[in-house]
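Example for tutorial group B:
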């Protein structure tokens, strides 16, 4: 099985149109000649030096990531710098790179659908819809049965890939949880949407101390905070299956943990 980089780009553009991305975002192809044939595509949340090495090791001629490598403007690709070195390695290896970020966040199915499915939610609908359609940031769904917040937090921890960060929750451990909102990646901008929706719990990442503390005092849903990388990783299986079906190319999902937090010690309680 093989396909060209251009064919894979076309398939991804159809699945995750670039015009769906936020104005500040940088999505689409980064490097790789469209006519170059590839036998295998590697899918990863981030493009880091270890990801480029993994592509070499598994024989992937293209990498598809969620997070942009070049989100902010650069004036140099000096190979002695971090991003310059990554770009040089990609080009020297003939490896293409493509990013689907906020356009994959709002897609249906997209990043939050994959997260919700991993947690066992059904009957999904957008948390923050776009034009009242199926697209939008986040998803709201239902668990098959009501469980306690403590048990649901344990379910989240077991469903997501392991990280040093782990999973933490804010709320009464015995609080019943049935209706759940999720948002892959940083989601504290959607706390108000979760509160308005009347969900029992909101699963996301990168929650800030003061925002979470004030939210907890208003009687909103319980909060479950997981590692950013872990909440977006389930999407990789989804997009890999989509590309495999559309392009008849071999796919590999990277298990390499690109979460930046590497040491954790529990405080005495």
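The residue assignment follows.
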């Amino acid at each position: 099985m093989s396909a060209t980089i251009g064919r894979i780009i076309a398939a991804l553009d159809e699945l995750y149109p670039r015009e769906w991305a936020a104005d500040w975002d940088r999505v689409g192809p980064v490097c790789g000649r469209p006519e170059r044939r590839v036998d295998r595509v590697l899918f990863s949340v981030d493009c880091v030096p270890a990801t480029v090495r993994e592509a070499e090791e598994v024989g992937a001629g293209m990498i598809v990531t969620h997070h942009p490598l070049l989100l902010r403007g650069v004036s140099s690709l000096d190979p002695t710098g971090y991003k310059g070195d990554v770009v040089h390695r990609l080009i020297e290896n003939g490896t293409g790179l493509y990013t689907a970020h906020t356009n994959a966040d709002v897609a249906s199915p997209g990043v939050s659908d994959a997260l919700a499915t991993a947690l066992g939610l059904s009957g999904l609908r957008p948390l923050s819809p776009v034009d009242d359609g199926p697209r939008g940031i986040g998803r709201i769904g239902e668990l098959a049965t009501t469980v306690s917040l403590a048990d649901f937090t344990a379910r989240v921890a077991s469903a997501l890939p392991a990280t040093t960060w782990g999973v933490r929750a804010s709320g009464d451990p015995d609080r019943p949880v049935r209706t759940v909102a999720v948002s892959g990646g940083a989601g504290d901008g959607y706390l108000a949407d979760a509160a308005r929706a009347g969900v029992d719990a909101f699963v996301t990442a990168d929650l800030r101390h003061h925002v979470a503390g004030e939210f907890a005092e208003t009687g909103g849903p319980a909060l479950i905070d997981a590692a950013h990388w872990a909440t977006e990783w389930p999407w990789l299986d989804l997009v890999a299956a989509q590309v495999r079906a559309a392009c008849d190319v071999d796919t590999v999902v990277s298990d390499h943990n690109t979460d930046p937090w590497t040491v954790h010690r529990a405080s005495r309680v």
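The first strand starts at residue 3 and ends at 4. Compare this with the pattern of hydrophobic and polar residues in the output above.
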